[in-house]
Every structure is written in C-alpha cells, then in structure tokens.
C-alpha cells in the first residue's frame, strides 16, 4: 500500500507539470482553435532563460518569474510577428498555421544547443530536497510544492477569466471573434495576451520539470503527456486539462512501476494509447464541448 | 456535338520536356559511375528520402493532412529490413515487403482515430508516434541494438553484373523511386487523386459529391506511410546499419520541410525538396564567424526559418515559384492581345 501511495504521489507531482503545460495548450486552443506544437519547445527555451537568471545569482523563485516574463513577451511577439500574418493569409485553413508551429518547434529545439551548448545544465530542485512521511509513504517537498503551484494556478486562472474585464474579453474572443471585434474588443491584442499567458505557463512547467537536468529535449516527451492530458480533459476545458494532467501523470507512473512490459523504457505508451482511445471513443474529451459544424 | 479539343502543348514544349527527361535519365545513370561509394551513399539517402517525401506529399499536398511522424514510418521500414535480414537471415526483398506492409498497417491503425475528426489531430497522433518510436527501439534493444545500433548483412551485386555493390544498390533503389514516382504522379491525376484534392479544398463539398471521406483519408495515410517505410527499408540496403538515433522527430519535420520547400501538390516538389534538405547543410561553411558551432548545426535552424517564411509568403514552394514565373512569361508574350490574368495565374488553394 505504501509503495502504491509512493508512486501515486510521484505521478501526481509529474502530472502537475503536465497539467501546467496542458493549460498552456488549452489557452491557445480556446483562443484560436489551434494545437500549438511548439508549446513544449517554447517552454524549454524559457527554462534556459530561468537557468541563466538563476546562474547569474537570482533566487530561484525570482528566476522563474523572469523566465515567465520572458515567455510572455516571447509568446506575444510570436503571435504578432508570425502567427497573426499567416492566419490572415490562410483564410480559415488551419494547416498553414499548424505547419508554422511545427517550424517553430524545429527552430527552437535546434537553436537552444547553439546558444547554450549541448551539455545538460544543473538545475535547482524547486522546494528543495526534503520529504515528509504520509501513510507510510514519503512525499518529497518538490511534489508537494508542485501540487501547491498547480492549485495556485487554477485559482489565478479562474480569477483572471471569471473576475476581470481582460478575462471577459478573452473569453469573448474565444467564443466569437467577429462579434467581439464589433463590440469593440481589441481582438489582436487579446490573442497576443493569450499566447503570452500560454508561454508564461509553459515557462513555469519547464522550471518545475528541469530538476532532472536541462537540455534541449527537456519538454519533448512532456509535450506528448500534455497533449494526452488536454485530449483527455477536452481541448477547450482548462479544468479538464488539470484533471487530465494529473490522470496522465498517475497512470504513467503506476503503469511504469506495475506493468513490467512498459517499465521505464516505454513510459510514453499509456499516454499515446490514451490519445488514440479518447479520439476514437470521445473526441471532445471528458469535459469538452462537442464541436458542431454548420454547413 | 463534340467538345472543343483542349489546347495541346506546343511541339517545342513537348520536345523540351523529352530532352530534359532524357538528360535527367542519363545523369541518373551516370552519377554512380563517376562518384565514389561514399557519395553514392548520399545519393541513395536522397532517393530514399524522396520516397518518404513523395508519400507525405500525397498526404499533405493533395489531401491536406499533416504528419509529423513520417520519420517513424521510415524507421519502421528500416528496422523491418534490419531485423529480418540481420537476425532472421531473410532475403532483402521479402524483408522490404514486410517493412512496407507494416508501415501501411501501423499508419492505418493510428490514422483511423485521428482522421475521423479534424486534420490537425493527425499531426498530434503522429507527433506522439514520433516520440514513442525511439522508446520502442530502446525497450526492445535486445533485438534492435538500441542507440548502439545494429549491423545488417550487405545487399550485394549479383555475380557477373560488373557493378560494384554501391552501384547495384543505387540502380535498384533508383528503379523503385522511378516506379513509385510514375505511380504517384498518375494516381493523383486520376479519379482518386481528384477526390483527394476535393477533400483538401472542401471536405463538406467533397462528401456531398460522394467522396467517402474517412475511407479516402485513412487509405491515403496508409499508402503515404507505406512509401516512407519503403524509403527507410531501402536505406538499409546501402547503410548496412541502423541506430535508434537516426529516426527522430527532427527527421520527421525535415521530411515535412522537403515537401513544403519543393512545393506541395506537385510531383517534382518532393524530389527538389529532398535534394536541397540533404545537400544544403553540406554546403554551409564549416566555421561560422561569431558562433562556436559547425555550419551543419545551423541547417535545421535554416530549414525551420524557411518553413515559417514559406508559409507566410509562398505556401506553394519552389514549384509554385516556377509556375508563377511561367505564368508571368506567358502573359508577357501574349500581352498585346490578351489583357488580364493568364490561365496559369490561378492561386493555389493554400
């Protein structure tokens, strides 16, 4: 039982990271109906900025904030300079924009080693190395802290989207771009803020994930977990992304431990199967709205 | 009453095309007789990537779906040949057939859930496959050799052919490429090809016209994956070696770059794209001033920038550029009596 709890908590800790990245994916999907394949690599890039700030002597939490601010600017600039013009040209066809996010994926993942080298960077463990005993299982401070951060994120997101004018405007753009433009909502600026927020959340996920050592492949596999989480929760549901992330984390860690066929090598398999099964059985996810297209 | 005959291309154009094709045929015949084995190896790599890019072009160019997993299908073909020939001592061609069939089946299996909904989800599922593939190789490293790689027995020239092994491999693979090229080119100009384009341009309209969307999309994806598998399998004919490091997401994205750079929905686009994506990194200068990296490391950055730029300004790639120049030249010639846009001026639909 204590062994089960041990891996449950480990899974929740990883799941909180996937949930954070999945929230980033969902923010962009809700705003633009787009799967952002570069989300993970953008997060990895910001994590290097966190590392630079920390390496220069800033306390770690402050360094993470610097990375998130960098992410916000980066996301907004990418939206303004690249995504917006291509979207405009594409006349409602999502594929050129998806192609651009794939291009960004390649650009960022191959730029990082040129800028920061190929050696893994030593990265601080958020909330330190200690652990506490609970029901016979030991839970690290890192896992507890990561879960607390996820809780904080949910509250902040809820406050922004439900309690501020900015959030209202962003929801309006997500629900109907044309009508909100007619109502005087600056649509372009809202999309920029959406991309910026998403990238900032990605930076946070990277800062929590990089304790294993920072290289340009940091977010490659977590991105798939995050996609699995968003698919499971529903691409238009931030709450679904959080639940999905935790489920994916727990399922991954438990199956890696209890199913010898999967083990540590094939850890990605359950998440991959999850994506396939959800798309086959319930494409809108657990909490998503069914897409209805008017002909 | 008979319909007016379509204007036939002028004799001069036809002659130019025939001469061009003959020159190309001679060039392709001549290359391995002149260059050394290592360079012939690069030609072979280009040809196998042409196959993968041709497959992806059917999917992306003609049917409007994106796959980020063609590197994995290329890998499935490569490992099928490597394992069956290397471990079980099969012949190269039966092993290749298995590799192609396996890519086809895996493509269909993961394509079905993704393609039943919108096109973007195929990119998601194939990205997952591309990330999972190296893990599978690692998990079964007792057979695959994992990142250490595995050696495979040579694909040798038959006795008395008078050809070196690399030349024989080159001509065999060239034959596959030519046959696949002709089949794909004719296929996309036939009824199924029109149906594919209809799906790309307007799914709902295509469905109303009686195109079976799911069947077409899944089948095209299967064939597209099988072509990538064929390319990967043939690669092993020459390299005699596979390693888990060779079939990354980066490879998958580069195959996508080949298609877009050359020009989507054109038969020659993938050929031009594959040649450029393989050779440009080799042409880059060895030392880049101010940067502590080798020129070839800049290749992927350059291609990513090109991909983004093409999507922003010229989504129809190099072949699209050629078409536009042709249209412009035609207009210049006809300028006195035909004002307004020429017949070749139509803007590609994406």
In short:
Chain A has about 300 residues and is mostly helical. Chain A has helices at about 1-30, 40-55, 60-90, 95-115, 140-165, 165-175, 175-180, 185-210, 220-235, 240-260, 270-280; strands at about 130-135, 135-140. The termini of chain A are far apart.
Helix share of residues of chain A?
Answer: over 70%
Gyration radius over CA of chain A: 19 Å
Spatial strand arrangement across the major sheet of chain A: 1-2
Largest interface: A-B, 50 and 50 residues
Quaternary structure type: heterodimer
| Distance between the amino and carboxyl termini of chain B | 37 Å
Q: Number of helical segments of chain B?
A: 14
What can be said about the biggest beta sheet of chain A?
2 strands, antiparallel
Please tally the helical runs of chain A, counting DSSP H or I stretches of 4 or more residues: 11
| Average predicted confidence as pLDDT of chain A | 91
How many structural units, i.e. domains of chain A?
1
What is the number of domains of chain B? 1
Structural account:
The complex is a heterodimer of chains A (295) and B (350). Chain A has one domain. Helices cover 72% and strands 3% of the residues of chain A. Chain A contains eleven helices and two strands; from the N terminus they run ααααββααααααα. A two-stranded antiparallel sheet of chain A has the order 1-2. In chain A, a hairpin with a 2-residue loop joins β1 and β2. Chain A starts with a helix and ends in a 14-residue tail after the last helix. The mean pLDDT of chain A is 91. Chain B is mostly helical and 350 residues long. Chain B has a single domain (21-283), classed as ABC transporter involved in vitamin B12 uptake, BtuC. Mean pLDDT of chain B is 84; it is low at 342-350. The chains are: A mainly alpha (295), B mainly alpha (350).
